[in-house]
Amino acid sequence: MSDLPEASGVQPVSSNELLEYYLNPLMQQSSESAVLFLQDKLHVDDFTKFADVYSLDSSGGAFKNIKRFMEEHFSLELPQIENPLQAIDKLKSSFAGALHTATSLSDVEKLDLAPNKKFLLIVELTPSARVGDKEQAITLNDAFVGSICRHLQKRGIKYTAMFTGKSTAENEANEVETFSGRHLLETAETKNGTFMNVSGSIFVFLRDVTVHLQAEDTHIIINATVTEESADKSDAGNSTAIVQLDLSGVSQNTTGDYTVQILFNTTHEGDRWTIQNILLSVNGPASGAFNGTLENARLQTGDIDLVVPILYSYHCSSMKLYVDNIRDESLKSFKHTFVELDGFQMQPFNIQGNAFFNAQDCVGFFTRGIWMGIFTSIILLSILMFGTLMVLNLSTPDRFDDPKGKTIVIAQTED
Amino acid sequence: MQASRTPPGVGVMPLTTEPTKRYGTPLGPIYTIIYSVIIFLLVLVGIYYVLTGKGSRVDFGWFFLATSPYMWALTGVGLAISLSVVGAAWGIYTTGVSINGGGVKAPRIKTKNLISIIFCEAVAIYGIIMAIVISTNISEVNMSTLTNIEKIQDNYSAGFKMFGAGLTVGICNLACGICVGIVGSGAALADAADSTLFVKILIIEIFGSAIGLFGLIVSILQTTGAGMSSD
């Protein structure tokens, strides 16, 4: 083994190198067989932690037998190997002699191993997960390795032993060679939205509606489909408009069709139009605590600014509206029910040029928190600025300074 | 920002007031550049919004309703005490410097001129009184669960009133403190020169002190209606 190249710890030994420079030369030596001990997870840190490396005359800690064997015979340590399993598989396929696998000492004793016949014995050691504690697993496996090696010694077989792991630490992914390829043609399917035109005076665009109905303990998720006629029952007017979306939906966990109706009451005064309130109605088969109807439930709009300048449309990319159980006591049983509108845009007044005008988005430029922070920061920073300027203007008294006069000399007195 | 009352060049020796060598970047142009850049950016953003028809997106009404009334109320309390104290401190330092200087040659002025210091200190006391009075109106309210529109409006207006009250008393006391300080400084030096002058100059100080009191009164009027309450 002395002619095998030394491995540095910096560059991991790839599986091809392992096969070419280490395993094949070892196998080609005529009378020696090989025994491979495979631990499922092995890392250099395990040796640092469990092999009692910091005491001068240590016996190897959990790696007692392995350390003894390495010291008594020729040994070589390869600190980092990439994917040893691949090298072992290639070795298995190209090996000329007999191939055996074993998991316990009795398996090894049963094997027909003659001293002059070459064989490759692969021993799978107990995984550390089965034992629990890593150190215990290593101690057990080390004892097992010791017993097998002594058994083979008793039989008078000359062999090379290799102790390696299938992977390194727990949270490191195995190096699996797959080609993931480029998925240029497979883009995520974006659902197209539906454009609804109600007699030329109300435009609505909507992509998706999901209703999460929560009645006491019953949780029903309704996926509603939007068609081009969904807004047809809307009522347009000069100063008020009611945008009504009638959708039919199916639920994943119950059978039957649900009808979902979302009403937007909008008014137009002067230079702005406002969404006054949004009402939700759900009708469908009763299931669990849901008795089949939820009639005109007010939805909480809370923080959203629903006052839109005239001529503008209202747009919200994902609008999640909860049922308003604070202002409407009768909805207490439907607490946590919400509607999610995806890709919603609406313009109920003053449509010009047969298209949506600029949109007021539900997401503002800065959030309210950012504005509050900016306001307070300006106050504090201006205080800091004025204070700093005043301090910088301080000066020492220089009325009686005379650069050309005598310098003051203070005589040193003996204290 | 230092109040320099003696003209340069008058003194024991003629001195150059400018340092003979100027090093580093001059501060004046730097401040000008910074202010101009900021103002330019603001004007640019404003013109962009106006010219693209998005002027209504600059929504101060939304800003006032979206920000928490507590921010306004607590800023008012903070400004009440801090600006008053700044005024008092400025006044005391201006007067104190003169009393110290004049007291070297005329030690008799020491005791009488403490009145000026007391007038300045009163300004700080007005500030802390108002801060405490304003802060008693703050109470814990969960704005998101309020349903009565009157209550919601009351809470918001309470926040703004407290901000206004704090700002009023703060700025009035700031001005009053500086005023009393400069007058008191002159009074100390006049008293050091001629002791009959002090009483007359004290009248000027009393007028100056009255303006701090005006700020206090108006601030109390502003906070009387302010009250935060839930349903």
TrEMBL record, chain A:
<dbReference type="InterPro" id="IPR046755">
    <property type="entry name" value="VAS1_LD"/>
</dbReference>
<feature type="domain" description="V-type proton ATPase subunit S1/VOA1 transmembrane">
    <location>
        <begin position="364"/>
        <end position="402"/>
    </location>
</feature>
<dbReference type="GO" id="GO:0033176">
    <property type="term" value="C:proton-transporting V-type ATPase complex"/>
</dbReference>
<dbReference type="InterPro" id="IPR046756">
    <property type="entry name" value="VAS1/VOA1_TM"/>
</dbReference>
<keyword id="KW-0812">Transmembrane</keyword>
<dbReference type="Pfam" id="PF05827">
    <property type="entry name" value="VAS1_LD"/>
</dbReference>
<protein>
    <submittedName>
        <fullName>V-type proton ATPase subunit s1</fullName>
    </submittedName>
</protein>
<keyword id="KW-0472">Membrane</keyword>
<dbReference type="GO" id="GO:0030641">
    <property type="term" value="P:regulation of cellular pH"/>
</dbReference>
<keyword id="KW-1133">Transmembrane helix</keyword>
<feature type="domain" description="V-type proton ATPase subunit S1 luminal">
    <location>
        <begin position="204"/>
        <end position="349"/>
    </location>
</feature>
<feature type="transmembrane region" description="Helical">
    <location>
        <begin position="370"/>
        <end position="394"/>
    </location>
</feature>
<comment type="similarity">
    <text>Belongs to the vacuolar ATPase subunit S1 family.</text>
</comment>
<dbReference type="GO" id="GO:0001671">
    <property type="term" value="F:ATPase activator activity"/>
</dbReference>
<dbReference type="Pfam" id="PF20520">
    <property type="entry name" value="Ac45-VOA1_TM"/>
</dbReference>
<dbReference type="InterPro" id="IPR008388">
    <property type="entry name" value="Ac45_acc_su"/>
</dbReference>
TrEMBL record, chain B:
<comment type="similarity">
    <text>Belongs to the V-ATPase proteolipid subunit family.</text>
</comment>
<feature type="transmembrane region" description="Helical">
    <location>
        <begin position="163"/>
        <end position="190"/>
    </location>
</feature>
<feature type="transmembrane region" description="Helical">
    <location>
        <begin position="30"/>
        <end position="51"/>
    </location>
</feature>
<keyword id="KW-0406">Ion transport</keyword>
<keyword id="KW-0812">Transmembrane</keyword>
<keyword id="KW-1133">Transmembrane helix</keyword>
<keyword id="KW-0813">Transport</keyword>
<protein>
    <recommendedName>
        <fullName>V-type proton ATPase 21 kDa proteolipid subunit c''</fullName>
    </recommendedName>
</protein>
<dbReference type="InterPro" id="IPR035921">
    <property type="entry name" value="F/V-ATP_Csub_sf"/>
</dbReference>
<keyword id="KW-0472">Membrane</keyword>
<feature type="domain" description="V-ATPase proteolipid subunit C-like">
    <location>
        <begin position="163"/>
        <end position="221"/>
    </location>
</feature>
<dbReference type="InterPro" id="IPR000245">
    <property type="entry name" value="ATPase_proteolipid_csu"/>
</dbReference>
<feature type="transmembrane region" description="Helical">
    <location>
        <begin position="71"/>
        <end position="93"/>
    </location>
</feature>
<feature type="domain" description="V-ATPase proteolipid subunit C-like">
    <location>
        <begin position="76"/>
        <end position="134"/>
    </location>
</feature>
<dbReference type="InterPro" id="IPR002379">
    <property type="entry name" value="ATPase_proteolipid_c-like_dom"/>
</dbReference>
<dbReference type="GO" id="GO:0033179">
    <property type="term" value="C:proton-transporting V-type ATPase, V0 domain"/>
</dbReference>
<keyword id="KW-0375">Hydrogen ion transport</keyword>
<dbReference type="Pfam" id="PF00137">
    <property type="entry name" value="ATP-synt_C"/>
</dbReference>
<dbReference type="GO" id="GO:0046961">
    <property type="term" value="F:proton-transporting ATPase activity, rotational mechanism"/>
</dbReference>
<comment type="subunit">
    <text>V-ATPase is a heteromultimeric enzyme made up of two complexes: the ATP-hydrolytic V1 complex and the proton translocation V0 complex. The V1 complex consists of three catalytic AB heterodimers that form a heterohexamer, three peripheral stalks each consisting of EG heterodimers, one central rotor including subunits D and F, and the regulatory subunits C and H. The proton translocation complex V0 consists of the proton transport subunit a, a ring of proteolipid subunits c9c'', rotary subunit d, subunits e and f, and the accessory subunits.</text>
</comment>
<feature type="transmembrane region" description="Helical">
    <location>
        <begin position="197"/>
        <end position="221"/>
    </location>
</feature>
<comment type="function">
    <text>Proton-conducting pore forming of the V0 complex of vacuolar(H+)-ATPase (V-ATPase), a multisubunit enzyme composed of a peripheral complex (V1) that hydrolyzes ATP and a membrane integral complex (V0) that translocates protons. V-ATPase is responsible for acidifying and maintaining the pH of intracellular compartments and in some cell types, is targeted to the plasma membrane, where it is responsible for acidifying the extracellular environment.</text>
</comment>
